[in-house]
Design a protein that fits this description.
The chain is α+β, with helices and mostly antiparallel strands. The strands form 4 sheets. The chain has a 6-stranded mixed β-sheet with strand order 8-15-14-12-9-10. Strands 4-5-6-2-13 form a 5-stranded mixed β-sheet, sandwiched between helices. Strands 1-3 form a two-stranded antiparallel sheet. A hairpin with a 2-residue loop joins strand 14 and strand 15. The longest helix has 15 residues. It starts with 6 loop residues before the first strand and ends with a helix.
Length: 419
């Protein structure tokens, strides 16, 4: 690489996710235009010599180059149906051919992005959706360029623990309390062949009326519960009501930008961390909220990033070949859940939604890390919530997943009341 060429020094987390894809979509939106989207992407890439959305993720090297002409053929027109968001995400993910790090598909009324998780977590995905749909005033493009500085993790660690030194011991105790116990290999297991080919996404929608009803009921009967803790309780209860054996540890995603100086919190990269919490059946939304609050106050998420950097500094990257997935794997019968709640998204408020009877929605497919994994992403737009589950259909049947989503979205109060 020529010395004059700028490059981005990737983190260990960036490289872990380099070969993983996130597919996200929003709609129905009026006035989408593939030419305008291409111009917006070009403007974002040219706004800064180190525009973060232009990095080329690679799992085999620390230094990543910045690509040029990233719009080109990477913004295309979509012609498939958009009435089923889960199916649309699945079809985008299963397209033939080699993927570029960032691809945009513009449908008549929806816009979708298929990008390498190495570029960043859900924060940049949401921002790209909003900008590529419509950035007529040019206010969103600059927000796509800033990458997290190399010193972000260390500064966040210092910022948190220098102000709250006692939370170091809180973190250690909390991690011990939520540590999973080994089953000794006695738990039932299942053999699954070619699970990667059976990755599926399904989406459910909770109407604004149902969301309002849920908020009122939980405010009265479960004070202290949060939207995220309620979603976690609902999802695990819905699956168990369908007869699914759910693991007692649930991976909850935390955005570690909360530990950064506010001036850096809009920067992009991989700064969200999954924390495994012991949440057995019957754990209330209030108890889940309490556990999440303890995690945040202890600094556990930023501590994980710090330990990752230390391990990375002491290691060498040995392989330049993408690992081959074993055709047959054996996994526990229990379904492992990972949940990410993006909360209420106001970044789409400038869009003009199509008045065709369908509610505004944002859905996103996050790849599970194994056939026994199931990811759930929740996003709230215009008062309604969309729940996107991604999983292996050889582990859990699509009909069962659809039924669980329907159960959760149609009567969430009854589900919580009887959980």
């Amino acid at each position: 690489m020529p010395s004059a060429e700028r490059s981005y020094r990737s983190t260990a987390l960036d490289r872990v996710f380099a070969d993983t894809r996130i597919v996200t979509a929003v709609g129905p939106v009026r006035g989408l235009d593939v030419g305008r989207t291409r111009r917006t992407l070009t403007a974002a890439a040219q706004a800064d010599a180190e525009a973060h959305l232009a990095v080329e993720p690679r799992s085999d090297t620390r230094q990543w180059r910045y690509r040029t002409d990233i719009a080109g053929d990477n913004v295309t027109t979509g012609t498939g149906p958009t009435d089923d968001l889960g199916r649309m995400l699945t079809e985008i993910r299963s397209r033939d051919g080699t993927r570029s790090p960032l691809e945009v598909i513009v449908f008549d009324d929806h816009l979708a992005i298929d990008y390498s998780h190495g570029i960043g977590d859900g924060q940049i995905g949401v921002m790209m959706l909003a900008a590529f749909c419509d950035d007529a005033d040019g206010m969103l493009v600059p927000g796509l360029t800033a990458g997290l500085p190399a010193s972000s993790t260390w500064k966040a660690l210092w910022r948190h623990y220098s102000r709250n030194p006692k939370t170091v011991s809180d973190f250690r105790k909390l991690r011990g309390r939520h540590r999973a116990e080994a089953d000794g290999g006695s738990a039932p297991r299942r053999r699954i062949e070619n699970w990667e080919t059976a990755k599926v996404s399904r989406a459910g929608y909770m109407s604004r009326d149902r969301v309002d009803e849920l908020k009122q009921w939980t405010a009265e009967y479960m004070p202290g519960a949060t939207a995220a803790s309620i979603s976690i309780a609902l999802w695990s209860a819905a699956l168990r009501a369908e007869g699914v054996d759910v693991a007692e540890h649930i991976m909850v995603l935390f955005n570690s930008r909360r530990y950064l100086d506010p001036a850096q919190q809009n920067s992009h990269g991989n700064f969200a961390v999954g924390i495994p919490l012991h949440l057995p059946a019957g754990t209330t939304p209030v108890a889940i909220a309490g556990a999440m609050r303890e995690v945040i106050e202890s600094g556990w998420p930023i501590a994980v990033l710090g330990m990752s950097l230390l391990r990375d500094a002491a290691s060498r990257i040995r392989s330049s070949v993408r690992p081959q997935h074993t055709s047959v794997v054996e996994v526990p019968e229990k379904l492992r859940l990972a949940v990410s709640d993006l909360g209420r998204l106001r970044v789409f408020d400038h869009l003009e939604w199509a008045d065709d009877g369908r509610p505004p929605q944002m859905a996103a497919s996050l790849e599970p890390d194994g056939p026994d994994g199931c990811t759930m992403l929740i996003a709230e737009i215009a008062g309604g919530r969309t729940y996107t589950a991604s999983f292996c259909s050889k582990m859990i049947d699509v009909a069962v997943m659809d039924s669980a989503l329907q159960r959760m979205c149609e009567d969430p109060v009854a589900l919580l009341h009887h959980a």
